[in-house]
C-alpha cells in the first residue's frame, strides 16, 4: 500500500547554520579529484613511468570533469618538473630544403633570435663602412693598376713582334686584329684585295704565324683577367672578414657550449664573405633598383636566410608545459609550413615553419580529447607514428 508524502519530505534542504561561511565565494575551490582514489593512483603510476611508449587513457561519463581534473592534476605535477628546451630552425647553407634544428635552454631561443637580428644590422653598417673606406679604395685601385700594367706589357710585346713583320694590332668588335702595314700606312680590306697575289700570299703567311702568337697572347690576357678577379676577390674577402670577424666572435662568445650554434655561425660568416654585396648596397640605390610593386618582405628576402625561427619558446614556463589539444587537427598537432605568394607562385622557407601541439608539449604533457582525435583520421594515424 502506498504512503502519502508531503512536499517537505520530497525535498532535501540544507541548514545554512551547518556551513562555516556566508556564501560559496568565501570557499577555496577544490583542485583534487573527489571520489576517484583508484583513478588517481593509476594516474600517478602512469605518470611515474619514464620509458617511452606508455600513454594514459582516461575514461568516464561526459560532464563529470575528467578533463578539468586531469589538467589540474598535471598542472601541479608539472611545477615539480624542469622547464624543457627551446627549439629553433635555422637555414642549412648546404641544403636549403633540410633546415637545421637547434636545441637551446629555456629562454635562449628568443635571445638567439634577437641576437642574430642585431648581428645582421651591425654587419650591414660595418660592411658598408669598410667598403666605403679610403683604405679599401686604395687596395682595389692598386690591384686594378697591376692588372692593367700586365696587360699593357703583353700588348706592347705583341706590337713589337707584329711591327717587325709589317703589321699593327688594332682592337675590334671581335677582339684584337692584325692589320698589314705598307709604307707606314695600315691597309684597308679593299687595298689588301688590290695587292698582287705574291704580296697577298706573303702577308697571309706572316699573318698566320702572328695569329698563333696572338692566340697565345689572348690566353695570357685571360689568365691576367682571372688573376685580377682573384686578387680583387681576395681583397674583398679580407675587407669583409675585417668588418664582420669581430662581430661573429662576439656573438659566438655568448653561446659557448652550444656546438650547433657555433657551426651555424661559422656557415653564416662564410656565406656573408661570399655574398657581401647584398649588405653594402646603398639604401637609396637599393630602392631605385627595385621594382615599384615589390613588398618590403620581398626586398629583405636575401637576408632572411640568416634569421632564426623559434618554433618552441618555453621562456614563460615555470615547469613542464601542459598543453590542451582542444582541436586536434593534423596541422594543429604536428605543425605546418606556411607559404607566401610571389609573382603568382607559392614559395616557402624555414622561417615559415610553425610548430604544433606536439612541439609545444615536448618535455611536458599533452592532453587530447580522444573523441575529437578519432574524428580526424590523419591526426590519429600521424600521432601513432609520432609516438
Explained architecture:
- By secondary structure, the chain is mainly α.
- Residues 288-297 have low confidence and may be disordered.
- The protein has one domain.
- It contains 15 helices and twelve strands.
- The longest helix has 57 residues, at 197-253.
- The protein has helices at 7-10, 37-47, 66-78, 108-131, 134-164, 189-193, 197-253, 259-274, 277-280, 283-289, 296-299, 330-334, 357-361, 370-375, 377-386, and strands at residues 86-90, 100-104, 167-172, 175-182, 185-186, 309-312, 322-324, 336-337, 340-342, 345-347, 353-354, 365-367.
- The two termini are 63 Å apart.
- Strands 2-1-6 form a three-stranded antiparallel sheet, with helices on one face.
Q: How many helices?
A: 15
Radius of gyration: 39 Å
Order of helices and strands: HHHEEHHEEEHHHHHHEEHEEEEHEHH
Q: Uncertain spans, ≥5 residues at pLDDT below 50?
A: 288-297
Q: Report the structural category.
A: mainly alpha
Helix content: 40-55%
Total strands: the figure is: 12
| Domain tally | 1
User: How much β-strand is present in the residues?
Assistant: 5-15%
In order across it, which strands form the biggest sheet?
Answer: 2-1-6
What's the main sheet like?
3 strands, antiparallel
Q: What is the end-to-end distance? A: 63 Å
